[in-house]
Structures are given as C-alpha cells and as structure tokens.
UniProtKB/TrEMBL annotation:
It comes from the Bacteria. This is Thioredoxin peroxidase. The keyword Cytoplasm applies. Residues 2-176 form the Thioredoxin domain. The active site is at residue 50.
Amino acid sequence: MSLVGKKAPIVNAPAVINGEEIVENFSLDQYIGKKEVMFFFYPKDFTFVCPTEIHAFQEKLEEFEKRGVAVVGASCDTEETHLAWLMTDKDKGGISGVTYPLVADPSKTVASNFGVLAGDWAYDEEGNLEFDGAPVAFRGTFFIDKEGVVRHETINDLPLGRNIDEMLRIVDAWHHVEKHGEVCPANWEEGKTAMNATREGVAEYLSAN
C-alpha cells in the first residue's frame, strides 16, 4: 500500500550521525516544520551496490541541503555495523566520509512500517516461526514534506540502484508546485515550462511542446 499523501510512519531508532556518533533515539520528527527529508532504505552494509548509492547521495548532499532537504539513510543493520562501515576506507569498500544520518533497524520495524521489507515472518508446516524472503530492505526512497507527509516514493528491487539526480528532480518539481501552483508534466526539469491543471492549460502546453 502506497504511503503517498499520508503521514510518514514514526521512526524512533538508533542511528549514526556525522559519520561517527551513535545516538539512541533518532527521529524524523526533528525535521517537521524545518526541513523536508529524503529518507532512503538500502539492503545491507558491507555489500556492493549499496556503497555506490550511499556515496552518490553524499556527493549530492550539498544540492539537497541548498534545497532545504535533509538526507537520511536506513538499513536493517545495527548501529555498530553502520559505524564500522563508516570507519572503513572507500578504497576498501567502506563509506568513510559520509556525514548524513544512517538509521539502524535490526528489528526490521521501520522497514516493515514503510513497506520495504523484502520478506516477512511466517509459520512453517510444523508451526515454527521463520522468516520467509530476504531479511533486508528493498531500495525504498521517500520524499517527506515539512509536515511529515510523504509526497513521493519509489521502491527498487535489490539489484537495481537508484538515480540520485532523479531524487533532486522530484524535490525541484515539488518546490515548483508549491511556489507556482502549476503541475509538472512528463520529463519536467527545473527551468522548463510547467502547466496549469486545466483542460486549457494542458492544451496550451501540448501545442507548445
């Protein structure tokens, strides 16, 4: 079930902030009324596609911050594993240099609440409880506005890395809608023409493009 248009689920979990400090009760509520949030899940620390995405978000962090957007990552690893990975050099597969928060979700509660857990608990034929599927998060991305409402979500399967520039485009589109009251058509980018959400507006846009 999509979370778009709904309040984002509560996040209250340990996290590593500033690349080096563990905090026990990290919450997205700290951004309400202050910043939007690009909250993304990745499958697992010390893997292969994941560090490319994490570094890509770091490389674009200044662009997100210029737009008033906080970037926060999360996986089902522990905070200690996050910290160990953050302390590992980039040339050894680590994510040293990443400064935005990484939420730890070993209970898988946050991933489950956001609908990105790649499996679930189930009973086998003998009545034993076991995990069916992969006990990690899909590559879910959620753009949350200043009121805590989800405005965009995408969920990729485990092998499919994200396009971080597309996340910035989503932010720009939302800001354009808020500022101008126009809607953003297919392939819209900052600086391109948007349109009024009326029949006349659509006809005018299509005839011009």
